[in-house]
Design a protein that fits this description.
Radius of gyration: 24 Å
Number of strands: 33
Number of helices: 21
Distance between the termini: 56 Å
Length: 675
């Protein structure tokens, strides 16, 4: 057993949920990974001995201040003024980390870029323009030029800079340039329409908006100049810069500066020291439960958390090339940029991974092979789709450099996990993770020091005091779902929500269930073999006669079901205590015989799950609502079916198929009415 692809000791063949796919290494192998070396250093520093990762995790939350001090020291954090201590105020919300310290996030990224020098650090692949490779020095130059442009526009620390941009080197440089000057960055991806962009950026009153003229998605050109004019009208005090991305000769609207002009003046990189809690970036919630939350993340919080997560939990360093498939509006993009802190290189992709086909030249596998990526951060939905399509990427592309696959967005089924080891690589580390935009990191996931089991996540992240709690406020029994809670503060918990009602919205979002304890809103199960499973949103859990059923267990079966392209499970309460359990199915072959599909699904669910799981109603629909990162949106759909106005419940800009929502709602209402 080793930690890199291509070496000996293949994992045991999978046999379903919880089966061992990759064993944990012995402690004698810990020095082969950054995490292992860090824990050995921790043993020397503390005088403790860790039997395994779980033992080390326990230390990290029992001695929270000692753990984060060691992360600070090992990461060589540059403090312009030193901290007074690790934690000032410990209470949540409002914990105070490293009071007195001043630092700058971008300064640490640029330090690593200087070490890369003329080595390629960015490999950008776009369906809109030709491939671009940037060296470390080239990226530093771009950051300096953009900072000169920001200063010329009169921007000062605390001002907001917004991006309506795809995942490109220019977007990355604009973010790092803003952070270096103490400006606050926020981005929305250009696939969002003007209403969605305004709902988010309008909360911030940005001083500058950098936007594009359009982009190409597969074979389709998507124009954005008309949408930009609508956004400008809603942000009258905002200066606008246009990146001519789709058409280098696009006409520039009046009163708009070009990106070329913004970056025209050379300048040296500047790092403005700011307090630990100074805003770095604003990330927006999905907007699936109302107005998107403007979540403020701090310089120190993101720097420290990602200095732990990237090198330790993900084991990324200077020899790696990380391919995170993400848009600029997802928290994964912020994580991706932080990979640069470790000296890691990045693959930036802008385009449709399903074009011209799931196994085509733009598939994530093809791009990983072409660029030589060592790390792939994909979506669980994408892996499940590849598995269901019968792809065998390891036999088609040269993925010999790929040593780790991370996935998130939704739970990864046991079948999809087994497929990775069978069809992609028998030695790769598969690390499903679950976290949130709220903390811009993972609560639970995998590491090179823990076993990989099908359908599970192997561990809690170091420094994250995560538990599954019963409604009474204590640990839920092993094997039973409980609320995912965090009992102690994490550095990357939000500095707050933007806006006059931000403090109350923040408290209401996470601290309304248990006083002083973060409650995330996911059902978490601690399995009998020590792993962890997310079984769905706690507000989407199904209650059948007092027995709670997580939606993830349904999808583990339905995602593999023949004839099913997609599905969604909803529960509607009634006076019986059982309620109505509804399964909406998108058939793989439209126009088929629905009665036969219904009968086969009832039989499958009864045999694979239990008679209690068999839905009362099964119907076919044109689509089910998913967000752009693949999350099923059960709660918003249920609320709309029950009569809430769609515009009050969900931001259609985050939906993959917004046009199909009305027909799906009508079909479910009709099916319920016929019962």
């Amino acid at each position: 057993m080793t930690t890199t692809a291509g070496q000996e000791t293949p994992p045991r063949a999978g046999t379903g949920q919880g089966s061992l796919l990759r064993p944990a290494p012995g402690k004698d192998e810990w020095p082969q990974t950054r995490l292992g070396r860090f824990l050995l250093t921790a043993e020397k520093a503390t005088g403790r001995t860790f039997a395994d990762y779980e033992d080390a995790w326990a230390w990290s939350v029992e001695d929270l201040e000692g753990f984060w001090q060691l992360v600070w020291d090992e990461s060589r954090i540059i403090a312009h003024t030193p901290p007074e201590r690790v934690l000032g105020r410990r209470e949540m919300p409002g914990a105070e980390w490293f009071p007195g310290a001043t630092l700058n996030y971008s300064e640490h990224v640029v330090r690593a870029l200087r070490d890369r020098g003329d080595g390629v650090v960015l490999k950008a692949r776009s369906q809109t323009r030709a491939a671009i490779d940037w060296t470390g020095n080239r990226l530093i130059e771009e950051i300096g030029r953009l900072q000169a442009g920001y200063r010329r526009l009169g921007l000062v620390a605390g001002d907001r800079v917004a991006g309506y941009l795809p995942n490109t080197p220019e977007a990355l440089a604009a973010y790092l340039a803003a952070a270096g000057l103490g400006l606050v960055w926020a981005a929305v991806p250009p696939e969002m329409g003007p209403r969605s962009a305004i709902d988010r950026l309008g909360q911030l009153d940005p001083k500058l908006l950098i936007a594009l003229d359009g982009y190409r998605w597969g074979a389709r050109d998507v124009l954005r100049l008309a949408e930009l004019e609508e956004i400008r009208a809603a942000l009258p005090g905002t200066a606008v810069v246009l990146l001519r991305y789709l058409d280098p000769n696009a006409e520039v609207p009046g009163g708009v500066e070009t990106y070329e002009s913004l970056r025209s003046e050379a300048g040296a990189f500047e790092a403005v020291p700011v307090p630990f809690a100074h805003p770095l970036t604003v990330l927006f919630s999905s907007g699936t439960t109302g107005r998107p939350k403007a979540i403020v993340h701090s310089h120190g919080g993101i720097l420290l958390e990602h200095s732990k997560a990237i090198p330790l939990q993900f084991d990324l360093g200077p020899e790696d090339l990380a391919y995170w498939y993400t848009t600029t509006g997802w928290m994964v993009w912020t994580l991706m940029v932080s990979s640069l802190l470790t000296g890691c290189g990045l693959v930036l992709v802008d385009g449709d991974p399903g074009w011209p086909a799931l196994d085509g030249e733009w598939s994530q596998w093809a791009v990983a092979a072409e660029t030589g990526a060592t790390y792939l951060a994909s979506g669980s939905a994408y892996l499940a789709a590849c598995a269901k399509a019968g792809l065998r990427p390891g036999g088609v592309w040269d993925l010999s450099r790929l040593r780790e696959i991370n996935c998130s967005g939704s739970p990864l089924s046991a079948e999809a996990a087994e497929w990775v080891y069978d069809a992609v690589s028998p030695t790769v580390l598969l690390g499903p993770t679950s976290g949130g935009t709220d903390v811009c990191t993972a609560f639970v996931g995998g590491t090179f020091l823990t076993a990989v089991r099908a359908g599970e996540m192997s561990c809690r992240a170091l420094g994250a005091d995560v538990e599954a709690w019963s409604p009474e406020g204590g640990p839920a029994p092993v094997g039973e779902p409980g609320e995912l809670v965090v009992r102690q503060p994490m550095p990357s918990m939000p500095a707050g929500f933007w806006g006059p009602d931000g403090a109350q919205r923040y408290r209401d979002s996470y601290f309304h269930t248990f006083d002083g304890v973060w409650c995330h809103g996911d059902w978490l199960v601690h399995t009998g073999d020590g792993g962890w499973m997310i079984t769905g949103r706690s507000d989407a859990t199904l209650n059948r006669g007092g027995v709670r059923l997580g939606t993830a267990e349904f999808y583990a079966v339905l995602d593999q079901a023949p004839g099913v392209a997609d599905s969604m499970v909803l529960h509607f309460e009634d006076g019986s205590g059982m309620g109505k359990l509804v399964l909406a199915v998108v058939p793989r072959e439209p126009g088929g015989e629905p009665a036969a599909l219904v009968a086969s699904l009832k039989s499958l669910i009864r045999s694979q799950l239990s008679p209690r799981h068999v839905p009362d109603v099964i119907l076919t629909v044109p689509s089910v609502p998913r967000s752009s990162i693949g999350k099923r949106l059960e709660v918003p759909l249920k609320r709309i079916v029950l009569g809430a106005a769609a515009e009050d419940v969900v931001d259609k800009g985050v939906l993959v198929d917004p046009d199909g929502l009305a027909a799906t709602v009508a079909a479910i209402r009709a099916a319920l009415g016929a019962e």
